[in-house]
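Reviewer comment 2.1 asked that we show a complete input and output for one of the modelled complexes. We chose the magnesium ion case, as it is the one discussed in the main text.
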Amino acid sequence: MPDSMTMSRNGMVSKIQTRIRTDAFKNNYDLVGKELGRGKFAVVKKCVEKSTGKEHAAKFLRKRRKGQDCRVDIINEIAILESAAGNPFVVSLHEAYETASEIILVLECAAGGEIFNQCVADNDEAFTEKDVIRLAKQILTGVAGLHRNNVVHLDLKPQNVLLTRAHPLGDIRIVDFGLSRRMDSMEEVREILGTPEYVAPEVLNYEPISTATDMWSIGVLIYVMLTGVSPFLGDEKQETFLNISQVNVDYSQDVFEGVSSLAVDFIKSLLVKNPRKRATAEECLKHPWLNGHSNPLPHLHNALRSSLDEPENSPSESEPELESPA
Ligand code: ADP
Ligand code: MG
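Response of the prediction step:
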């Protein structure tokens, strides 16, 4: 860890190397196209650097949220991105700007969008198991690198894992370090809450958070990538939380139609309630599912649904949503 990094007891880093520019972002970049995405407090837009013609993604972060000054959180996000600069599967930070109300992070553009889109897609758009194996290796290599550096992401989900391109399928870029922390300075973090569906039991129980917390989320993520179903999602938050704390997971043939049993075995090594008994990123990378030589069966859940069954209800035009287990 560089000496210049200053840490607080909750794992937030307050010293950064990046010079935050106060000249106008607009002087150096043109915004192009529509929004790339948005989260709770940020809007991300595609932009082109005038001096180089290169495309980037500009993440506009509001400094005030719910009446609170959140500049320290944004500085922590920058610090974590800096510490992951050599990680090939983490989005790179190019520059940062500050205005009276916002901090703008100029990031590498992951033009393929969120893996979320392929998780909710139908047949030909959805990932095959072979795709998921390749992408899972990249996610795990990226996360193993973070964990080796004592960084925990704490918000791994299909909206925060992007692709360099969608067709043909590119490589993984992990984004959104807004909840990330450094473990080496973290005495007790019990208050951070990620997204209900992806959150580990220890987070719900206000037990200490560790790198294993990310591994749970990766288990949920891989489950969703292979099946299109969100394993713990209930009709209400309370039901989701109950499903998580009881580790109520459906591994039946119904859900895993056409998916190899090694994949199911892999997920089972992650969706383990006791964080100490959960597989680590390094252990996952050695799992036979990711190191097999045989071609796994194609991923059939959506294909089957559309070819064997006449749809009972015609598909709606509403926003895509993940399916919850029936
Ligand atoms: P938040 O902290 O508000 O969730 P994110 O960093 O997750 O912000 O960004 C919100 C969304 O913007 C992401 O889910 C993704 O769709 C899009 N996005 C973020 N970073 C990039 C990037 N570097 N390239 C392309 N799209 C991005
Ligand atoms: Mg996000």
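The chain has two domains: 23-108, 113-290. We note this here for comparison with the apo prediction described in Section 3.2.
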